[in-house]
Amino acid sequence: ASGNDINLKYQDLAFKLNFPTRKAGTFSIWGLGLIDRNKADVLERSEWETMGDRSSGYNKLDKLAGGLAHKYVLDENTYICSSLSATYSKDRSLADLHTDDAIINVADIQNSRWNLVFNSYLNKKFSPRHTNRTGITITELKYDLDYKVSPYLGLNKPMEQISKGSGESTVLSAYSSSVINLSNNLTTSLGVTGQYFTLNKNWSIEPRVALKWKINPAHSLAAAYGLHSRRERLDYYFVEQIINGKKESNRYLDFSKAHHFGFTYDWNINQSLHLKIEPYYQYLFHIPVEENSSFSIINYEEFYLDRILTNTGIAKNYGIDITLEQYMKNGFYYMITASLFKSKYRGGDRIWRNTRLDKSFLVNLLAGKEWMVGRLKQNVLSVNGRLFFQGGGRYTPVDEGKSQEEKDIVFDESKAYTKRFNPSINGDVSISFRINKKRVSHEFSLKILNVGMRTGMHFYQYNERTSVVEEKDGVGLIPNISYKIYF
Questions:
Q1: Closest by alpha carbon to 163, among 310, 309, 305, 311?
Q2: Does residue 108 contact residue 148 with C-beta atoms inside 8 Å?
Q3: 258, exposed or middle or buried, with CB in 10 Å at 0-12, 13-18, 19+?
Q4: Which of 75, 123, 138, 424 is 20 to 30 A from 461 (CA-CA)?
Q5: Do residues 307 and 288 make contact, with C-beta atoms less than 8 angstroms apart?
Q6: Distance of CA 184 to the CA centre of its chain
Q7: Residues forming beta bridges with residue 114, ordered by sequence position
Q8: Angle at the Cα of 102 (from 98 to 108), degrees rounded to 5?
Q9: What is the domain count for the chain?
């Protein structure tokens, strides 16, 4: 079968306005809105081969965001920046499976969220050697979540409630960071960040420190350490299940945390050419995993979660990034980045494995050229390109026997991420033209993504007609046309 007929509708709009004043500082207003609709129709019955062929669905996403920012200079050494922003998003996803005699609703996901974020910080230069920035962020979350999904799609089972919650929660964050010039060539930065999540009363205190030694005008070395934390998606906290007769939930999942160690060598080869070498090591802990399973949230990429998790997982990432950058010179620039890395994790079964994103290497080449055109050479014609070569991602092999039983793809999680896709090469190109006038500028651009027609995505599907598991590659050329106005 050729696949479902999919109808896509997408629109977005963004703006940012700046209003400087004589005495009250500078105000900025920005906004973003998008509408996304897509509908997949079921194929003719004679074309049914896979579950996707006999499925239909509808996805609807509306998103609005806007904010007001203000910067006020108190004196030549002190200024304060504050912002207030709000975001609203509402999405609805429906999916049906068609059989010879019925239509079965297998997914109904509704998600409405309001976020109100207040951020403010004070930047103070105490002396030529010491500058401090201290601030707070208050994020108010209002949500209404309702996730229903069929647990066994191939067997045409009805939906089950996997996540449901509504209410309000707050994330409180505060930080302070100082940059201190210990000498003309030695600089350190010291800081601490704290956050508190009212939904489950979890909190975190995170120190950060860095030291930079400027050997001479061309060479410098730096080292840094930081403890970082991350909360999970809101719907994950509202997953509930009955396990051994007891109601379990993810409500009290702690923050995922990581110790980051980084080193940097900078070499300004000349005024326009720069080399940077950055080895790093990251140790991740408190990672949500499923007990007695290879599952870890760091590998997860599905639209919903239907598992009960605990913060007993760990992981580690280490590698080196090398960047050679030619700054804009005579209208031409380029940047070459090469990364060698390793990524491992330990799930709820206490076994170390490769992560899904352990691709081993990535080479990225970015280059572009600008020409000043027009009668007064005030307009800009720009051509840019990106070429990247990367190792294959890891994947979990399919359990052929269970897939046959459930008539759907079932992975063998005991062998999680033991397989690897082939390396891939791809590229993007873009061309833009900017017309600069006295009070306004217009920019038109065309971008073409995935010039090599390879998205790097791979997937499996179960052929119900032949009872065979089939491997498919994602392909797709993505054009994008945009217009921007500056005034």
A1: 305
A2: yes
A3: buried
A4: 424
A5: no
A6: 38
A7: 88, 142
A8: 60
A9: 1
Residue 107: which domain range? 5-424
Q: Measured on CA atoms in the order 451, 453, 454, 458, is the torsion positive or negative?
A: positive
pLDDT tens readout for residues 204-219: 999 999 999 999 999 9
CATH number at residue 381: 2.40.170.20
Look at residue 101 and give its three-state secondary structure.
Answer: coil
Q: What is the pLDDT of residue 2?
A: 43
pTM for this predicted structure = 0.87
CA distance 158 to 155: 9
Neighbours of 125 (CB within 10 A): 15
CB 202 within 8 A of CB 255: yes
DSSP class per residue in 183-200: SSSEEEEEEEEEEEETTT
Domain presence at residue 459: no
**Would you say residue 437 lies in a domain?**
no
Q: Residue 42 carries which DSSP code?
A: P
Residue 52, pLDDT above cutoff 90: no
Given the structure tokens 């971008």, which residue do they identify?
447
- Indicate whether 392 belongs to any domain: yes
What is the rounded CA–CA span in Å between residue 316 and residue 414? 20
Residue owning tokens 């090591």: 281
The answer to whether 288 and 297 are in contact (CB under 8 A) is yes
Residue 272 lies in a domain: yes
Cα Rg of the chain (Å, integer): 26
- Written as six digits, the tokens of 331 are 């209208």
Alpha-carbon distance values, 401 to 52, 294, 397, 405, 410 (Å): 20, 19, 12, 6, 9
Query: Residue 88's beta-bridge partner residues?
Result: 64, 114
**Listed residue (178, 184, 112, 110) closest to 141, CA to CA:** 112
Residue that is written with structure tokens 């998003």 in the block = 89
Q: What is the mean pLDDT of the chain?
A: 91
Q: Which amino acid type is present at position 61?
A: L
Nearest Cα neighbor of 144 from 203, 60, 88 is 88
For residue 429, count CB atoms less than 10 angstroms from its CB and return exposed for 0-12, middle for 13-18, buried for 19 or more: middle
Quick one: which of 243, 244, 204, 208 has its CA closest to 223?
A: 208
Between CA 455 and CA 391 the distance in angstroms is 13
- Tell me the three state secondary structure of residue 410: coil
